[in-house]
Amino acid sequence: ETGVTQSPTHLIKTRGQQVTLRCSSQSGHNTVSWYQQALGQGPQFIFQYYREEENGRGNFPPRFSGLQFPNYSSELNVNALELDDSALYLCASSLGDRGGTDTQYFGPGTRLTVL
Amino acid sequence: GDSVTQMEGPVTLSEEAFLTINCTYTATGYPSLFWYVQYPGEGLQLLLKATKADDKGSNKGFEATYRKETTSFHLEKGSVQVSDSAVYFCALTPNTGKLIFGQGTTLQVKP
Fold this sequence. Notes:
The structure holds two protein chains of two kinds. Chain A is mainly beta. Chain A has no helices and eleven strands. In chain A, strand 7 (64-68) and strand 8 form a beta hairpin. Chain A is globular and about 40 Å long. Chain A starts with a strand and ends with a strand. The model of chain A has no long low-confidence stretch (mean pLDDT 92). Chain B is mainly β. Chain B contains no helices and twelve strands. In chain B, a hairpin with a 5-residue loop joins strand 5 (32-38) and strand 6. Chain B is globular.
């Protein structure tokens, strides 16, 4: 069974640029959630996708957007990068219904640095 | 709104000491509760979970009991090892699809 994978591992961007982060969910999982973890903090929920549709969103501006593909892999896109976007971005997959109560399994994360 | 509060760290223990990391929560309804662990430079790993009141989650010698009357889910281990050094996160899901995390507690175990 393949776990959750994310790419790239590290990324450096400059303020105002755009970035795309990628996530492959665990085999058989149909739900993907994205989290932002600032240094020394707990992860904060960005949004969740269930079967290619957005299924809940946290308190993040519209410049944070996402996609889920038919194979249940996912992308997180961030436009107009700001310095405060520097963080570890975590993807988690789960097998569940729209209620999203099932256990979420996390990938290793992408470390984004905005200069 | 729903929230999770953990004891502040860092917690420093000697090998084979008893560990308790306190976690309390605020939530409407009946959330599921989790402990995740994050080793340096890595993502989060599920340590244990409990889905209803009085359930006890356990894994790798760690235990936590879902206490609805005290809204708590304290993490315990009888004898810690150096390899347990990590950041521990308590979390809940209010059955809306998102996980709500505490701020994390750093555990350092010295030989």
